[in-house]
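User: Modeling request: complex.
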Amino acid sequence: MCARYSLRPVMPRLLEWFDLDPETEFEAQPVVAPTNVVPVVLARADGTRGVRRFRWGLLGPGESGGTGHINARSETVFEKPSFRESAQRRRCLMPATAFFEWGGEGKARRPYRFEWSDRAPLAFAAIWSPPAAVELPATCCLLTTDPNALVARIHDRMPVILDRDACAIWLDPDAPRPLLEAVCRAADPERMAMAEATREETLPPRGGPDVQGSLF
DNA sequence: CCAGACGTTGTT
DNA sequence: GTCTGG
DNA sequence: CCAGACGTTGTT
DNA sequence: GTCTGG
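Assistant: Request completed. Predicted assembly structure:
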């Protein structure tokens, strides 16, 4: 499970990595928790990409409250009634710079940070759902898969992280389902770094996520 | 995932 | 302990 | 505790 | 992942 990630200021590298217009407005959000509104990347009708702000926590049709689903199993996302329509028609990417998993038991339990060794941006495979009312944000959730050898030291699941080619496939509305399922695999552990994280870097700031966003 | 708040009964 | 919000 | 299902609308 | 039933 992944219930906390980080989106640090790495512009314009991130805009370039995601093939976004250099003028795109994009907020950093060093600590992202469920229910926070986060930037997501999706494909426009003309094939170009844009950024929108969705609430992390997928709500079903008509639902307007609660946490919602923050993760969906990639192995079953095209089958489960709660997810399949979004998986088929509403795929998106959730940009990040790191994600966190907790390991240990009791008092020794602590967060670990995972990121690319070269600090490249992470692209989580994600799906989204339209809002129950026009004034509400759409909601999204990220897909999970079995962990690679590095993450497996800490946890039994990890986010699906896509490389640039896989991102293009994931955002292609016409991509065949077997191909979509094929890109949902664990990232190469040789390219990833794991480090003990501080409690502070996983604590959402008081006052809500809006106060931490820095525009640049 | 963590952090924080928590009900009622009824008084060391 | 359990629930809720972030 | 584990095992199993997982909403609703409405029909490719 | 989460909830419910047994």
